[in-house]
Predict the 3D structure of the following.
Amino acid sequence: MDHFGIKDAFDIAIVALLLFYLYRIMKESGTLNIFFGVLAFIVVWVLTSQILELKLLGSILDQFMGIGLLVLVILFQDQIKRFLVELGDHKRWRFLKKLFRHDKGEGASDARKYVLPIVYACMNMSKTKTGALIVIRQEIPLESYEKSGDIIDADINSRLIENIFFKNSPLHDGAMIIDRDRIRSAGCILPVSHDRNVPRALGLRHRSALGISQATDAFAIVVSEETGNISVAHRGALTTRLSSTELEHRLSQAMAND
């Protein structure tokens, strides 16, 4: 029997860390049952092929593993992309980013200039109970969602935001996507979350906001058409009934991290 050494412990630690990240992302995206199913299949494959050395069953499962990995990559390409982005954007690597990005402080300061127009627009729409859905890009690109709507490519302006979501506007039903300091598009179609924990009182805008936050690392703001309440969805979590101060704080953090 081989001696258990430091390399083996390091190997186990890396696998455990990868499984933890996958578990967290799958939980946020509402596909946790699939994660456990895949994990159970891998355990059975290791037992039959590596430990018990059952040749016939092991060879059959080997074929399934080869095809299954390709199917999983196709089905969960958004989750895999998000996993890689989070792995590269983890706090432990941020000190390296600062070495190569000397304009970090300046960029964060510039980003905050665009927070107030969004907050003002959301507060005004909240008072008039004008429904709105605003998505702010983080690390993962949103080009595929931008193309589902009408390209605008305009400066961030509170009046423009309010006019787009005005009830008689043809774009008010879709989502607005903001990329850094620009309004890229409006009337966009987003993935809808099927999370059963979402209260039934919340409508399609809230489910779409939660859906885009599960599929990507985007920051989504919702203004309810029924109540005027402001909600935020980020990293698979939905927070409702935010005040203007809370919205400004969360939005400042999101845009400063671009």
